[in-house]
Amino acid sequence: MLANSTFHSRPQLPNPKQRPLCSSSTHRSRFTRPRKHAGRSISLLASSQSQRFGVRALTNSEVSEKKLGAGAAQYVPQPYSVTIPVGDRHILVETGHMGRQASGSVSVTDGETIVYTTVCLSDVPSEPSDFFPLFVNYQERFSAAGRTSGGFFKREGRIKDHEVLVCRLIDRPLRPTMLKGFYHETQILSWVLSYDGQHAPDSLAITAAGIAVALSEVPISKTIAGVRIGLVGDKFIVNPTTKQMEGSELDLVIAGTDSAILMIEGYCNFLPEEKLLQAVEVGQDAIKVICMEVDKLVKQCGKPKMYDAIKLPPQDLYRHIEEIAGDELVQMLQIHNKIPRRKALSSLEDRVISILTEKGYVSKDEGPPEILPELFEDEEDDEEVVEDGEVDEGDVHVKPVPRKATPLLYSEVDVKLVFKEVSSRFLRRRIVEGGKRSDGRTPTEIRVINSKGGLLPRAHGSCLFTRGETQALAVVTLGDRQMAQRMDNLESDDELKRFYLQYSFPPSSVGEVGRMGAPSRREIGHGVLAERALEPILPSEDEFPYTVRVESTVLESNGSSSMASVCGGCIALEDAGVPVKCSIAGIAMGMVLDTQEFGGDGSPLILSDITGSEDASGDMDFKVAGNEDGVTAFQMDIKVGGITLAIMKQALLQARDGRKHILAEMSKCTPPPSRSVSKYAPLIHVMKVKPDRVNLIIGSGGKKVKSIIEETGVESIDTQDDGVVRITGKDLASIEKSKAIIRNLTMVPSVGDVYRNCEIKTLTPYGAFVEIAPGREGLCHISELSWDWLAKPEDAFKVGDRIDVKLIEINDKGQLRLSRRALLPDTSSEKADPAQQSGESAYECSVQSASDVDTFKKVLITSKDGSDERQQPRRKSSPSRGSTSSRRDLAANNATPQRVFRRSTSETPDYNKEEQRSIVEVDNINASIIKSKLVNGEANSG
């Protein structure tokens, strides 16, 4: 059938094995009596509009099998392969050796990465719709990387979020190339069969899908291909390896034809618009080479396209609808609010259908009555008229029903499709001719913006962002490393995301009733776009060790809800106290390409901050996020044959002006974000120990770390192989207790260290075992307990006594030898050193209250003349980082500087810089304990 023929309904044959013959336009044929054939005639009545069938074009294989006949050798498609240059290497394209029963199948190899893609379509067309029935599924087989899934079920199940993103990358550039009027369901399946860890399969899957569709029977306008562009230094790289992408400033995926751009999606770190245009130009050149080679392959082994299956509404129907509803459409499209405008258009559509039905152009039934020619029709036989008024149907006799001859021309589905197209045409004409959009704005004008921070009192951060009739509620939650999102992909199953944004679009946001369930592909795609836009402004993990989760719930939608999530998410991060580098805004751009059709000068008309109707009726949806200096994320979908670089440049520059305006409005947020961590957010303390001592914290089977958590009351203790320890708790006292235990567990004793107030754990005939730190004991031999002779330790000590000891030796096995005698005055010497008589003048400072736990340190002061002085620590608001006392304190502990992320800055002691002294920090401080162990010398922490 011709491409511009009228779509009409056909009945489904009772026997699905029988194929109808192709016929010319017979949808308006009147009721006729069937002809006889072989003593029996068949008459088929149309039962319902939903029962349709189409005729697929016979492929070369089907023709060959028909010629060969039954019992002959089966037709086998010949394999073809071609090598195509892409960047600095080649990809191998093979077809005809795998999946030969599919309408189109191809495998594409890059390095040792192989992507296999098939295209199949249904024999029977589905109901007409303005949305092409295309279904894309992409899956990464774990066997491709030589491993299995990390989950309980080792079989691949529901596709993961990053696979959904690749499905969208495949779908978005293919959909504009599908011809209108083709309603056969088309399914694209893509699998990663082999992955070498260097060549990414996602951009390869776009090219594989474009080649498979080009080889299949699906009618398309042009062949598409896709590539990734990276920027390493000042050089753009086509399809960079994963190692090259680690140092790339740009991650751009672009798809298009040999002459136009259809889709781009990219993320960068505040890259200027000029650099983006250069990257797009490099990608367009690479795509052009691929498409030219694919076209040559299609000429050799491609299947004939099903152009005869295209069914378009008749052109007369456009004229009828414009005459009936044209004047009212002009008025209704000027309604500013979305819901009243939508209801008015829906009411007008029903009225148009009713008027056409009354005039006899549309049937009130589901489909117009229609009789197909009988299946085995013989043109030479004449019609047989039965005199008694019955039609001979063999065993069945059907009496004819008189029918009124009315011009039943159109189906109701045709009317709805044409009405939508006419409405879009009138909207585009209003924008081009009148210079005003549906809500009264000019093409560059931004809707009214209003934002409120700190909306939810118990949330760590929140913002309600409103732009026109689009509204998003962004909520930020801070947590420890255990809240991070674990990724299970081809690379590894241990990848953690410390920042993620989750987007939800409930049906109530557009005033509709719908099913609530798992997030749709659109929700996943919009969420990742907003996430990647905000990611460059986040601090590093060393600066801010929290895991950050942003939830964006769309409360009201009329265009650009993903960009509203970017704006609202940025303010919510500030409200949560996240030290972001700058503010980020997002805007969606639209376009009317063919302005000459509506009285314009022919140049494209770019629209800023588009609404939902402008997105549906326009030719482009271009989302751009960033600040005044550059872009962090962008995504473009084209609904026409593609755009040029000149159009894209104009859209980027206009988007930059729009972002500046939005950022200025965001700065007027009332009330402004708090910019401080909520009191309900957890505290995280980060400390560093020696990597070989991490196991001491964990213990056998995790028993030790669990006991520390139970004893101190902290929420979690997270350890890493590099020695980083993160303690998460609700209050500072519990964190200090756990910190002290961990430091004592991991400290590195050195000869000469003095430990005060240590408990005797065990007495033996040869000495006493003394605990110098939790879990760390040493032997004080009986000869080192006293200057006096002891027959046995029990004569002077008992278990539980506390003594001061000094470390005098560490043997090869790491065992500690302690001495109490070394700290006592030598009674045999007549001239005892006064300093030794006082135990080397070590004094302790008491802790005043639990709230001052973090603000006090143990101090040992020795004056220049050798005499000892007692001195209480003095407090200062914030000592300078380079002060002498700070450096000595750090050297005495031999540890990495500690950081506690708390809501307010605690005071720390300051000391007289003119005095010579040694300072030792003892972390085992508890508000209920007045005396603590003091180390004279160095008690190094791992």
Short account of what is shown:
The chain is α+β, with helices and mostly antiparallel strands and 942 residues long.
How are the SSEs placed, and which strands pair?
Elements: H1 60-68, E1 80-86, E2 89-95, E3 104-110, E4 113-121, E5 134-140, H2 161-174, E6 186-194, H3 202-215, E7 225-232, E8 235-238, H4 242-246, E9 250-256, E10 261-271, H5 273-301, H6 315-332, H7 338-358, E11 391-393, E12 396-398, H8 412-434, E13 449-453, E14 461-467, E15 470-479, E16 485-487, E17 495-497, E18 499-504, H9 521-534, E19 547-556, H10 561-575, E20 585-592, E21 605-608, H11 612-617, E22 620-626, E23 631-638, H12 645-666, E24 683-688, H13 694-698, H14 703-712, E25 716-719, E26 724-729, H15 732-746, E27 747-748, E28 754-764, E29 767-773, E30 776-781, E31 802-810, E32 816-819, H16 834-837, E33 859-861, E34 874-876, H17 884-893, E35 899-901, E36 908-910, E37 917-919, E38 940-941
Parallel strand pairs: 5-6, 18-19, 30-32
Antiparallel strand pairs: 1-2, 2-3, 3-4, 4-6, 7-8, 7-9, 9-10, 10-23, 11-12, 13-14, 14-15, 15-19, 16-17, 20-21, 20-22, 22-23, 24-26, 24-35, 25-26, 27-38, 28-29, 28-31, 29-30, 31-32, 33-37, 34-36
Region (Disordered): 1-39, 821-844, 861-917
Domain S1 motif: 752-821
Biased composition (Polar residues): 835-844
